[in-house]
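Quick check before the chapter quiz. The format below is the same one you will see on the exam, so make sure you can read both the input and the output lines.
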Amino acid sequence: MRWEKSRVPELYSRFEGFIYQILQSEASDRFEIFKESLNDDRFRADFTVRNLKVSIPVEVKISASDSGATRQIRNAARHVVGLLKNETEVGIVIINSRLPLRAKEQLKAEFPHIVVIDLSNLLWIVEGTELEDELLEIAQEIAPFSEAQGRGNEIPPEELFSLGLLNRRTEQPVLANRRDSVSCSEFKNLKTGREAAKSYEDLCERALKNVFREHLSVWSKQQRSDTGMSINDLVVRINSNHDFWEILRDHFSSIYVVFEFKNYRAQLGQDQIFSTERYLFKTAMRGVAIIISRKGFSENAAKAARGSLREHGKLIMDVCDDDLCEMLRLAEAGDDPVIVLSRKLDEMLVRIER
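Here is the expected output.
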């Protein structure tokens, strides 16, 4: 996959800045961290981590393809080896991709003085912190179509702990503590109408992140189309192996899902369905919309949604405040909130006429 040239420096800079945050968080009390190498200008590393005992060059790489990541690491490792002054020193190469165990073993055998850190190691480091979602978002931005994305993690190489670059953990963090608490009373207390529309959008987004943070990523608000004629309230990317999201991805041509928020006092009419239908474009892998509203679809709106699916293959789902509250309660109890959407999709498909 190729990027637009203008995006490469931005994506690299963001990932590099993220790595700097991790180094500062984990090791700043034991090391000085320099953003430029202390070596000769002909050989520069992205960072140098140094104290009185050691000086460690750190090279950061990004790859849009997991299959090409090993080659990039091998090239970076050769570069870092040239920065080492003797056989007792080590260097570090960090990449945004996941590496198979076999590739890691081969790299270790080929470059015994280089420590490789991949996405699964980075996720272990930031698990349970506010940086976890940021890391996944950056990884998805760099490699949006990678099949290796997800939240699985792997403990980093032992050398990072023995050198003092990472802190050993006595216990695993509790992910539930990171959820932004949303209560159903917030929906009940929020007024309907245009004046509260922005507050309703923000509340719905908080609720969605609460229940679907393991399944969706790259939350992009107020996305304007390339013609400037359409604005989507929220566009997210599917990042899940859950059956429901796989169905949307595989059978409804959607890597992306459009969320629309309607703070109307009454049920939605068919005009709102026709308006949302125009946002969907299956060729752009955006064939699914979920409309969240206070009272849900009217019968005419439900018929229009079924018609859109039957005639154009575009899926428009109905979620009301009560549905969202049910999902919040399921998530709070440790159950699967996606079951609400699965049930709704099943009911909709059963009612589709020929």
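If your answer matched, good. The CA atoms of residues 37 and 315 lie 52 Å apart.
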